[in-house]
Amino acid sequence: MQVLYTAAAHATGDGRDGHVRTSDGTLDVDLAIPKEMGGAGGALNPEQLFAAGYAACFHSALRLVARRAKADVTGSTVDAEVGIGPNGSGGFGLAVTLAVELPAVDRAVAEDLVAQAHQVCPYSNATRGNIDVTLTVR
């Protein structure tokens, strides 16, 4: 693979109760463990960052395959939910749900475009076989 771009981030503090900053400074935030996991909450957490990245990346992949198919992407959206929990082996795992809305195309076309986007999206390719990803069309 020819790398076209590399993102870099630096984490400090106590991991999930710490701080993260990108090398260019465009992201510079405190992190907190969610209340649901016994933390104080009140700040971003890694799952929120992953959800935001996956939603944006998948939406770009969706728009790419839709353009190739000459499908109308007007009003399209992608919502990502990232869950975290014990994996049964002493560690933790993630589960993702991507909910896609393509209001300008019929459901069968939308489902096909979502399936195609799942093959194109780098986040989908990185997670395939590693975590459960559920795709839904609204």
From TrEMBL:
<dbReference type="Pfam" id="PF02566">
    <property type="entry name" value="OsmC"/>
</dbReference>
<dbReference type="InterPro" id="IPR036102">
    <property type="entry name" value="OsmC/Ohrsf"/>
</dbReference>
<dbReference type="InterPro" id="IPR015946">
    <property type="entry name" value="KH_dom-like_a/b"/>
</dbReference>
<comment type="similarity">
    <text>Belongs to the OsmC/Ohr family.</text>
</comment>
<dbReference type="InterPro" id="IPR019953">
    <property type="entry name" value="OHR"/>
</dbReference>
<protein>
    <submittedName>
        <fullName>Ohr family peroxiredoxin</fullName>
    </submittedName>
</protein>
<dbReference type="InterPro" id="IPR003718">
    <property type="entry name" value="OsmC/Ohr_fam"/>
</dbReference>
